[in-house]
Structure formats: structure tokens, C-alpha cells
């Protein structure tokens, strides 16, 4: 964390990458297979999942497919204590520790964008209660990768080794020491599951690094994954309500209803266009998992929604600023905006945390479309959440 806070020169990053890759792909594969068993010891030990939320329930479902049944959930929410979640007894951390702390394996299944603590604090909580064996979830996921991975940026470490050439190519694209330090930290986390490597979030509003790129009064802002209008409201606030036009795309019908209601309350509603559609590489329809929340995503659901490409949907416009937070569909959506990017080089704020390789795939794809950009990498929530690649045209950079 200290290195990330101070920043990293290009030369230091190159040397650090050599160290990260020294393990080699074969050794990384071996580590993936053995890490959980080395930490957990005997498979006969009781297994407790610390965290009965979305990640904990997903872990439970995967384990049951291979015949593994945890003895309990432990959870910080008192409303869940002495209830059953998905059929599993749910206890307070203190009660779970009293019953199983001496002989059980406690796997931490708490990790989410709304988190206010860190993995080290979760581990310390359990150890302070007397839990002898505490294991963050990654090594368990590596062991049962066919059932549990990928999960956002968590995937098998050897895949990073397989893409080493691209990883190293992108290391030369970052435009400042802070981005290089963040890139190294993200790679360390992807390779070794080291949450302590991840630095604190930056202070500026998500998607709007005004210290790098001021907003103009003629911005044409495009919000892909507009959710309930949170980013549009932020843009209106950051721009002081001075812009040319806003386009919002949101495919989840529940979210879109909230988006439309939210936007109806803004003062310049006539300058905002909304469309209930996904954004992808081409026009058509896609299956969609509509959760009515920020995790709604293309694929995996029964709902069929319209999909558009930005090149087609905005053919009569000239976007100046594009944001994408679309749950892993960013590469497809960028390909669908290739014409806009090649012709106009708008500012791009692209989420890069939904899949392991988006850390390097996103900047590489943008760079293949235009050589007009400077690249920056910024985290906006704890532990890797809301990591954004900013591609800013050199003409738009704030002058010193």
C-alpha cells in the first residue's frame, strides 16, 4: 500500500513486473490447486462461511454441487442470527467461533462494493474471537474454479501469466506514477489474492477526474449502464448544470423506471435522452439478467432486451464524454463505439473491474482505436471495486 500511495515510475514498474512473473505459469497452476488445502488442512474439518450475503450464498451453491455442506454461516447482521439462510444455520461470529473456532475452517465470504472495512479487519475479527484457521475466499474459488469462477476480477492466477505480453504492453501506457502503482497493485491482487496490496480509493467523484480533465459547457455525455440515474445526477452536479446533452442507456426495466423518475426531477429534462436498451458491439437483442439493481447484466437471464451500438444509436451526435459500467460488456460496447472513438476521441471512463483481464484489455482496445489518448487508472471503492480506466484525449488534459 505504501508503494501505491507514493506512486511508481515506469522503470520501477518494469522491474516490479519481472518479480511478479518470476513464479511462472506452471508454478501458478500448482498454487491454484493446492493453496486452499494447504491452508485448510483436513477436509473433515467443519467449514463455516463468514458472510451470508450474495457472495456467501453463491459459494454455498457451488460447494453443494461437489457435495460439500458448510456447518454454518457466520454473519455480522443480528437479524440473521439463529435463522437459516438457504437451509444453513446462521450464527453470530461470536457463537460460530465458540462452536467451531478451535477445529473449523472459517472462509471469509464478505467482499462487495459497499464494503467499509478490509479483508485484514475481517480476518482480525475472527481471530480475536478465537478462530484458529481463517481463509479469504480466493483460494477456495481457485480450487473449485469450474463452479465459482470467474467472479469479477477474481480468476485463476495462471491466466495472467498466459497474457503476460499484453500485461507488459499496457504497463507502458499509463501516464502517471499513481496509475502505474495502481496497476501493479491490481496485478498483485489478481495473481496472489493479496488484498493488502490494494490502495485506498481516490477522493474525486467516480467517472469525473476533474484534476485531470475539466468539464466543458458543451459536453455531450453518454451514460452506458445508467442504473437509476446516479451518474447522470453526478454529472449534472459536477458540470454545474452546464452541458449540451445527456444520453442514458439502461436495459433493466426496473432500473429504467427508476432512472426515468429520477431524471424527471432534473431542471434540464429536455436535454436528456433515455433509452431502455443494452449497449454492445452491434444492434439486435440479447438475453438479460434483470435484478433491478447495479448487478443486472447481459446473459444468464430469460429476459430479452434491445441492444444498440453507440455508433448507430448516436450517429447524429458527437459524444464528448462516454462512461461505461455494464457488468463485463465493456469490450463489446467499446467495439460498438469504434467509429465515434476514431473520429472524435471523446473522454472515456470505462470500468475495468468486472473481469480479471479487463485491467489490460480495456486500455489495449482503446489504444488500438486511437493514438490521441493519455491513460489513467483510478480506484473508487475499497478492495478493487469501481476501478476505472480513464482515456483522456491529450487536448482535454488539464494544463499545469
Defining traits:
single chain, alpha/beta, Rossmann fold, 2 domains, seven-stranded mixed β-sheet, 17 helices, 19% strand, globular, SAM-dependent_MTase
Give an account of the 3D structure.
It holds the Pfam family Methyltransf_21. Residues 223-356 form the Methyltransferase FkbM domain. It comes from Acidisarcina polymorpha. With 400 residues, the protein is of the alpha/beta class. The protein has two domains: 27-148, NAD(P)-binding Rossmann-like Domain (Rossmann fold, 3-Layer(aba) Sandwich), CATH 3.40.50.720; 201-396, Vaccinia Virus protein VP39 (Rossmann fold, 3-Layer(aba) Sandwich), CATH 3.40.50. The protein is built from 17 helices and 17 strands. The chain has helices spanning 2-6, 10-20, 25-40, 54-65, 93-100, 119-128, 138-143, 145-148, 158-162, 164-171, 177-192, 230-238, 253-263, 310-313, 330-335, 338-344, 358-369; strands at residues 47-50, 72-74, 83-85, 88-91, 105-108, 133-136, 220-224, 245-249, 272-275, 278-279, 284-289, 297-298, 303-308, 321-324, 347-351, 373-379, 387-393. The strands form three sheets. A seven-stranded mixed sheet has the order 9-8-7-14-15-17-16, with helices on both faces. Strand 1, helix 4 and strand 2 (72-74) form a beta-alpha-beta unit. It starts with a helix and ends in a 7-residue tail after the last strand. The model is unreliable at 1-5 (pLDDT under 50).
